[in-house]
Design goal:
The structure is a single chain. By secondary structure, this protein is an alpha/beta fold. It folds into 2 domains: 100 residues, Urease, subunit C, domain 1; 296 residues, TIM Barrel. Helix content is 30%, strand content 23%. It is built from 13 helices and 18 strands. Strands 1, 2, 3, 4, 5, 16, 17 and 18 form an 8-stranded mixed beta sheet that branches. This is Amidohydrolase family protein. Pfam families: Amidohydro_1.
Amino acid sequence: MTETLFERANVLDTAAGTLVRDQRVLVRGNTIEAVGGDLQAPAGARRIDLAGKTLMPGLIDCHVHVNAHSADLSGLGDESPAYVAIKAANEMRDMLHRGFTTVRDPGGADFGLHQAVSEGLIDGPRLYFGGKALSQTGGHVDMRPRGRSVRDDHQCCPDLGLVCDGVDEVRRAAREQLRTGAFHIKIMLSGGVASPTDRIDSTQFSIDEIRAIVDEAEAANRYVAGHAYTARAINRGLTAGVRSIEHGNLLDESSVDLFLEHDAFLVPTLVTYQRMAVEGAEHGLPAASIAKNPIVLDAGLHALELAHRAGVNICYGSDLLGGMRRHQLREFTIRGAVIPAADVLRSATTTAAKLLNEEDRLGQIIPGALADLLVVDGDPLTDLEVLTDPEANLQLIMQNGDIKSDRLGS
């Protein structure tokens, strides 16, 4: 079994929000074996001298769409699944080389991509997929224009969602996604920017439908993630048992109270609205979606600050589409404008791991955790910008004990 000893490492303690200097970290196989200042190198171990560089856990992005190679989501369902899968594999490799060793895809990725990463067929982050997101007719992943009545919901169509209506249909739809091994079920609780026929301020699915989906997820020991913007939509979801709210840009104090009451999670995705405003049209975002974007763009930072101040569980999310996905790391500095760096880092490590029910395996450098490790030239606790330029500052990537990139020259 391969053993690696990192020496003279400044270890980022993500739980405490501190940098512990001059540490040694021993990796055995795919697991962190020990952490301390006086560990001895086992015979035959590979030794990596970090000379005071930062050793931190691999990053976790809790809201990506690896299939969404264009911002024109309405066209995805008509494309070849093989073509979309190859594009997704390329994007996942890029995500890994930005430092994201784990991602959650709440709409689009399936068991095939998960299997390809798990078997080492492609390089990419560990993938927690939700299969196809569930939407009511005319909801956020119903991408039909007003004049089209036909829709193909075949499993192999590479679009992001599935349309279902009524308690019986939504139960069946949830069970189908769970049957494929989905780690969670994603549902649409409100309108969205990228969908053609709904309003941002609408609510979607009846309470009975939401509760039926939550029941099915809980029966399978899984959970429900809910796309929602307005306080009304957020509160309906949280009251019905939804565990994570995606986006949440228009939440209010009543929403915060419900987050705390249910120990639920908020996954803001501020960078996507910023980039859609700047370059959405260039990457295929339709004019109708561009017109909706300002409704949520300006409110997002206030919602993040309000939730953080109250102590809500906040996770890192990007939700970027098409060519805008290259800005995945920019979410760090956007959040850093209103909340402390240590808390921004927790959102992409310890809190994200908690949402994934992997708090003992991901997001920390502790014995027993998986060996997902990054070597960074700089201290992200004092300057989050060091994370946003991986070409300059990301010196080594280890995932599951395997070194995926090494610029240290050791």
